Amino acid sequence: MNPPLSSVLPPLIFGTATFNSQYNKDPLALPTTTLVERALKLGIRAFDTSPYYGPAEELLGRALDSDLVRLQFLRESYFLVTKVGRIAASSFDYTPAWIRHSVRRSLKRLHTDYLDLIYCHDVEFVTPNEVLIAVQELRRIRDTDKSIKYIGISGYPVNVLADLATMILQETGEPLDAVMSYANFTLQNTRLLTEGVPRLLEAGVDVVPNASLLGMGLLRKDGIPVGGMGDWHPAPNGLREAIHTAGTWAEMQGEKLEVVAIRFGLETWMREGKAVGTSVDPLHIEDDPDCPTKAKYGVSVIGVSKIEELDETLRIWRSVLDGLADEDLEQETGAMTPRDALTDHEWSLRRRQSIRAQAKGITSLMGEWVDYAWASPGKGFVNERRIFGAVDEVEEVEPHETPDALLTPPTEAADDDMDEVMEDPDCQI
Fold it and tell me: Which of 63, 316, 15, 31 is nearest to 180 (CA)?
């Protein structure tokens, strides 16, 4: 029997959906192997991917099969997370035959003989019975050939995720190991905490990772990015206008909306999500007396496309950890830098207080749009999958269409505006 997921899953997960043409014009040109190698060197010990993310699984697998990784990092030293069930934007297959096929394919692509955690991908797009059948098949695989260790579900609507987690517990007598939601714990929407966590705890769910801290690009001062697939974001105009007003206000305070949103998401979920978090030491810094240990931390999924973004994200992460080391110490808020006479710890504490003040101001400007959640799936959605079950290898991957249906977002770190954030030496994060 495997130990509880909350005792082995690292609190920071490297998401690889940025290794995809939906978020990068040419994902094959990204320095994916270098990114993965550097992430491991810097202490990241978990990677999240999906067959739905274009070439992401294969690119991650190639990186993990590099000489450097194979020689310096045992397979047992890092977590691999992938998904099953979603094939394309409007194509889903949760049948046992396809689940088996998808698992075998992921094992091959990722150059491994076991997967640490598998989610049923975007469960709101299929029926509860289909989810139940898929979970049961994944558990059968787990119990027979040991190629899977932990099983969960992922999706957007908090109530649907909680309903399904409850149903699975009632029908099988065994709770899910993990439930991952996205865009539901941000500056704009905290339903994952207020509505999701209590019900998921009741359903026995062990870990609830939080993804998409910018709400699929919504929380940017310049608005939602419109790329090759057009303006696909489901946010209504009223919400977009409220976010724009909040972003303008933040800029007047010397901040950038996306900076506040990212730090708020990482820092607040680490603290507020600890009931459904992990006890693994952050970044495995076990010998640093200034880094908190022996506690539980909410789990977050990040995503980057550049080395600079990775380095900066981990600098933010360490500052967040440092600021959490002394929750009771109150500091004055306001602009500051980590220079002058301040120690790194003092700066982290003050930055934490500054972000809290900025977050409060931003959310007050959103008014009625606080905790608004859009519909997923959208009106009129139809599963376009027509042939269910395993297929020949030559037919195994359906074309990744430009989605009209709601996408599960990897991250917003690849946006042009985030490049500006990462490259600005005066930007406080």
Answer: 15
